[in-house]
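Run log, item B.
One chain of 111 residues. Sequence copied directly from the ordering sheet:
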Amino acid sequence: MHRGKQVWLRLSKDLPRVRRLLVVDGAMDAATLSAVKDGDDTLMLAQAAPGLRQSLEQTAWRRAPGDAADPATTVWLIDPHGNLMMRYSLDYDPHGLLRDLQHLLKISISG
């Protein structure tokens, strides 16, 4: 969560155009939610809709050979229309994510 917030903060003038959302698959108690947010008011939380994981696996998840990542533990970039643009493993390079995000924001005509 911390790396994601740091990337978001480095967007400076584009901050209002980007939101951070953690989609939780399954129930989380209040203590766990509090630990995840850790006082971060910029992180939105949402409960995954039934079938989201299956839908991702069928439509958006294309595993490369040797890719052992799980769609439930992946960082997704989604445009304002809900289109999945890019995905990153949880050990992503923050500078790479920032470059990609800045490029997408530069060429975006909506959002």
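Observations after the first pass:
- The chain has a mean pLDDT of 79.
- The helical segments are 2-9, 30-37, 52-60, 94-107.
Flagged for discussion on Thursday.
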